[in-house]
Amino acid sequence: MTVKINQLELENVKRIKAVKVEPTQNGLTIIGGRNGQGKTSVLDAIAWALGGDTFKPSRPQNDKSVIPPHLKVELSNGIVVERKGKNSALKVTDTTGKKAGQALLDSFIEKLALNVPKFMASSDKEKANILLQIIGVGPQLMELERQEKEAYQDRLMAGRIADQKKKFAKEQIHYDGVPDQLVSPQELINQQQAILAQNGENARKRENVSNFEYLVKILTDEVASLQKRLNDKQKELEKATNDLAIAKTNAMDLVDQSTEELENNLREIEEVNRKVRANLDKQKAEEDAHQAELEWENKDSVLKNVRQDKMDLLKGANLPLEGLSIEDSALVYKGQKWDNMSSAEQLIVATSIVRKLNPQCGMVLVDKLEQMDTETLKEFGQWAEKEGLQIIGTRVSTGSECSIIIEDGYVKDASVKTAAFDASTDASEPLLQSATPTWKAGSF
Q: Residue 402 — pLDDT band, cuts 50, 70, 90?
């Protein structure tokens, strides 16, 4: 069961002289009035009564009274809270009449419910941390956000590297009409050496011809001068003649090959190889660029998976409000961050989160509702009523949208006992209801 305020009686607190209020249990109770009449003093008094000395005003006593402040709050769980006397001593009495203290109140009163503006003024990260505290996924979400940032940086770096490698590969020169692999000069050198060897063999054979010609000449001379050796020498002559014929036959069709083409090829091979190297470098650069692109795609997949895990974690969490989430360590409601939410949406988000901090606390105090127009107030009141939440707020106004009007420290219409902003009624209709007075100012 949530705890709400059934009735509160205040006397000599700040600008309040004597006020009694019975706020509506479900929905919005608006305390209206001009500036400086005591509206905010009502909220400050409630916060002080229920929240303890942390909320005690620096000058709690009404400047125009010598009587110490007196506060009395009756709660829906039967507990009665009082502060009175010179030291504003706290007295907490439960349903059985037993006395208790601030510790009992702290068990079912959420401190931020007494100070919603503190939550609303906090940073985006602080708001998000409070929500994470509620739903209990703070450590997991922090780890996923760390992984998300790391994956994002990895992907960013991989993208930059891929772009650089693509640009580098594009800038490389490519030559058409050259081999795919570097040309080896050794093969050409071997061919050249084979030709030179063949030419050497040809030279040897030519030299052989000359030798035989010389021999024939000598032998002929000897035949002429040495007739006595004619028979022997004739045989030698015949043999030499036959050998000469054979040698001439062997040398007749010989053609020397030119090494000029090979020499030119050797001179051109370095240029060819330069172009081949350039093509190989471009091919390597393109392969590197492709691998870098694959790496980026892998990093992008990791980042998407982490983000999906984070979304799944929040979807599975017990969030206090439908449409509420956390993105980049900030609250998001219906796709909008805090600074893009309407005033009503901000209050709905704030009160939902504050309420969730301690589900036993069924009431919330909200100051400065004049920031809303009547339609927004109506929307806010309807939401509070639907949620079964008691909201007590102040508004600089004396219009009919106000539940009660505070004037010079008193309720303007002393005959009003209970008043509430009816979210289902038009703001132009009177909302104050008369009742027979049951309480006299200055007497509890």
A: very high
Cα–Cα distance for residue pair 349/127, rounded to 1 Å: 10
pLDDT band at 415 (very low <50, low <70, confident <90, very high): very low
DSSP code, position 420:
-
CB 31 within 8 A of CB 393: yes
Distance CA(174)–CA(59), nearest Å, equals: 86
> From CA 99, how far away is CA 106, in angstroms rounded?
15
Strand boundaries in 23-121, DSSP class E: 27-33, 70-75, 80-84, 89-93, 99-100
Contact 43, 71 (CB under 8 A): no
pTM: 0.59
Q: Are 60 and 13 in contact (CB under 8 A)?
A: yes
CATH topology of domain 5-109+358-434: Rossmann fold (3.40.50)
Q: Where are the beta strands (DSSP E) in 308-415?
A: 324-327, 330-333, 336-337, 363-366, 390-396, 404-407, 410-411
CB 341 within 8 A of CB 379: no
Task: Give pLDDT tens digits for 302-335.
Answer: 888 887 777 677 666 677 888 888 887 788 999 8
Query: What pLDDT digit, counting tens, does each position of 97-130 carry?
Result: 777 889 999 989 988 889 888 888 888 888 888 8
Whole-angstrom CA distances from 18 to 23, 71, 88, 441, 443 are 16, 10, 16, 5, 9
Nearest Cα residue to 183 out of 113, 312, 67, 279:
279
Amino acid identity for residue 331 in this structure: L
Domain ranges of the chain: 5-109+358-434, 153-295
